[in-house]
Design brief:
alpha+beta, Arc Repressor Mutant, subunit A, elongated, binds adenosine-5'-diphosphate, binds magnesium ion
């Protein structure tokens, strides 16, 4: 991949970025209480006394949440720490009735791992994972319910989050986008987080600094809570450009927390390091250190699904696809399954081309997702069969596909109805070609002088005369025989 450089007035700068991602764990109940976690429920209808921070309530750990986090750690190829510790992160906020968040700090459940990015040029870029720790989510302040008043909804209070911290290995906005998409893909394969950024189940904090190539890391700024992949990429670019301008003017970067304004396309200061919280972390006296048994981790490992990287490898090896196409096809499980159904017993490359080309194009154009497609895997397979057995040409197939998409009819029915069958009858084609040759002696002479372009013109005329239905291979062969032999 062409490396990403920011060109300033005094030379080039390199971007350095690390992402902290909060991923909401899929589980029926909260991390330390039995309250439900469903999205969009009536405010304060899913709150236990523990989540409301009532005095004297005791947290009880939810084993399923731990299992989800272990699974995720394994999916990130990370080490699972057999002992980890929950600590209190103390701060006051109206949506945090306990006055602290139970999190992990010095001893997280999951240590170092790696996420592999699949870049558009086929390159695979490893990004280090620093850690994954478990923590509770806070409630939500609602400022838009009544003028002059703020309400608090505690439904989210106590929901289990995984904070996944990357190493500062990301070097471009494109890599940051690829990182979030890949991480989301892994989480969805595992079923540990639904990855929905709009609903806030996946939230991203960005850390950005810039440096002269080859130099040590510069001072970083953090941009909080950016809620779409596109905005993450924009925010990183805007923040890096801001820092380059300051440095080129002889200024210094002040470490601070910033917010991204998508309307203005810029970041602005929220608080500086001096104003940063001192959270007074200490181990939560209500919770024992979390010990996960070896056997249990091994059992979870044994039940892991095939993950995107392995699936990609398999697609490359057993279907002969390139790294980029494989990466695209395995990005989500439904697409991968769909592809395997289409490819079964057919030319796998032709199937991949049809899926990533015509089919994805139609999905994008109509805003339909895979579950609502009018052309299912069996129907697409049938269309590909008609191409493979020579019934229709690739060009006609595109027309047939459009019609299938609009009407939901099968390829066979459409070809039959519209008489689109390819003309592969030598006699019939020969008659058409002889007529064209007889009518165009000038062009015939040009071909005989070796003008290849005019040869192409004859192919075009034949196609036109047959409404595009002539078998292109046969047309080429017949013309060559008649005009150049
Ligand atoms: P904090 O607790 O202050 O957020 P962390 O050590 O958890 O600090 O690091 C947060 C993130 O900052 C990590 O994702 C890391 O990769 C990233 N990071 C660290 N140093 C830099 C830097 N110089 N430039 C950009 N990102 C950085
Ligand atoms: Mg941070």
């Amino acid at each position: 991949m062409a490396s990403y450089r920011i060109v300033g007035n005094t030379g080039e700068w390199e971007l350095v970025c690390g992402l902290e991602i909060h991923a909401q764990v899929i589980s029926k109940s909260k991390l330390f209480s039995a309250a439900a976690t469903e999205f969009g429920a009536e405010p304060n209808s899913q709150v236990s006394p523990v989540d409301a921070g009532m005095p004297g309530m005791l947290p009880v750990i939810n084993k399923f949440c731990v299992e989800q986090a272990v699974k995720t750690g394994l999916g990130l190829r990370a080490e699972i720490n057999r002992t980890s510790v929950f600590e209190r992160k103390n701060y006051f906020y109206p949506d945090l009735p306990q006055g602290y968040q139970i999190s992990q700090y010095l001893h997280p459940l999951v240590g170092e791992g790696t996420v592999y990015l699949d870049m558009p040029d086929g390159a695979v870029v490893p990004i280090g994972i620093e850690r994954l720790h478990m923590e509770q989510d806070a409630g939500k302040s609602m400022h838009d319910q009544e003028p002059g008043k703020t309400y608090v909804d505690l439904n989210r209070s106590g929901v289990c989050l995984m904070e996944i911290v990357s190493k500062p290995d990301i070097r471009s906005p494109e890599q940051a986008g690829a990182y979030i998409r890949k991480l989301r893909s892994i989480l969805r394969y595992l079923g540990t987080c639904d990855g929905n950024m709009e609903e806030g189940s996946l939230r991203c904090d960005i850390n950005v600094s810039v440096r002269r190539t080859g130099e040590g890391f510069g001072t970083r700024c953090e941009v909080k809570n950016v809620n779409s992949v596109r905005f993450v990429m924009h925010a990183i670019e805007a923040e890096a450009n801001r820092q380059v301008e300051i440095l080129e003017d002889g200024g210094k970067i002040v470490q601070q927390t910033r917010l991204y304004d998508p309307k203005k396309g810029e970041t602005r200061s929220m608080r500086t390091k001096e104003e940063a919280h001192d959270y007074r972390y200490f181990p939560d006296p209500d919770l024992l250190p979390l010990v996960v048994e070896n056997d249990w981790v091994e059992r979870i490992k044994a039940n892991m699904p095939e993950l995107p990287d392995e699936k990609k490898q398999r697609f490359m090896e057993s279907y002969g696809l390139g790294p980029y196409d494989s990466g695209v096809l395995v990005a989500d499980q439904e697409t991968a399954n769909f592809y395997e159904q289409v490819a079964k017993g057919r030319d796998p490359k032709l199937a991949a081309n049809w899926l990533t080309g015509e089919f994805f194009g139609a999905l994008n154009r109509t805003g339909v997702d895979l579950s609502g497609t009018p052309v299912d895997a069996a129907k697409l397979g049938e269309l590909i069969d008609l191409i493979s057995d020579g019934t229709i040409s690739g060009r006609i197939a595109k027309e047939v596909f459009e019609e299938m998409w609009e009407t939901g009819k099968s390829a066979v029915a459409i070809v039959e109805e519209k008489g689109l069958k390819q003309i592969s009858d030598t006699g019939e084609l020969e008659a058409i070609i002889d007529k064209i040759i007889a009518e165009n002696p000038g062009q015939v002479a040009q071909v005989k002088e070796g003008n290849q372009k005019v040869m192409g013109w004859f192919v075009g005329q034949t196609m036109k005369a047959t409404g595009g239905k002539a078998n292109p291979k046969m047309v080429n062969e017949l013309l060559r025989k008649k005009l150049t032999d």
